[in-house]
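[step 3/7] fold_predict: job queued, chain A
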Amino acid sequence: KHACRAGSFSFDGQLVATGSVDASIKILDVDRMLAKSAPDENDTGREQQQGHPVIRTLYDHTDEVAYLEFHPSSIVLASGSRDCTVKLFDIGKASVKKAHKTFTDSEPIRCLSFHPTGDYLAVGTDHNLLRIYDVNTGQCFVSAIPQQHHKSAISCVKYAATGKLYATGSIDGTIKVWDGISARCINTFAEAHGGHEICSVNFSKNGKYLLSSGKDSLVKLWELSTSRALIAYTGAGTTGKQEHSTQAVFNHSEDFVLFPDEATTSLCAWNSRNASRCHLMSLGHNGPVRFLTHSPVQPAF
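[step 4/7] structure written:
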């Protein structure tokens, strides 16, 4: 009923979850989405047989759903909301409407990321301390060294595929890389995007690189071993400053970097290795794209 601000693919690429300002979450079946938009539009029999793409609608939040992520190995969806809760839904059950687990915070949730084992959940909020939850016990951990923390709200968090590292980005303009076991900050990129808010961080599959985007409309690739920005992907957002935050993502093969251009509502894509620009692709939206997520298994976003 309202703007869509969050999205996630399941680990096998079969499901998409979307979260809205109206506090609802919808789960869509990817095959049904493709069947519905298939070129043979007149073949209605197939579509009816396939059924509606939306297979679940979940109403358990009371405010905007800010972030969604599927569990890395089971059909569980984690959602973070402006209502200060993180909820886990077991969407394998057809009748599920409510979460089977809720973590309540004192601050609105902005972002979250599962540890690759699925046993831990990193949660960023309007507060400057990152929370790490034990999914099974609900215990919450925070790093005990005050000078290592961000100065402002945490806008994005991601675990590396190995679980050895996780990265956070903040409204304070810094990106921090943390040790996944000791929870100590091992690297800080100050003013990573010229002091602008950090909008997204994503590790490469091998864990050696970090892709970031900021409100300066730039996308950067950081080499973690040398702590430097190897590549800046430029040319999106000709105005140079975005109003809204959005994500820079790798495609499923990591050959390309994708980033929506706010001014033209089109998609910028670059060759990830040499930063050469590909053709602009119209996204067909009427307003700025607020969330972008790529399928882990096929060329689809």
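[step 5/7] annotate
The first helix runs from residue 30 to 36.
The radius of gyration is 19 Å.
exit 0
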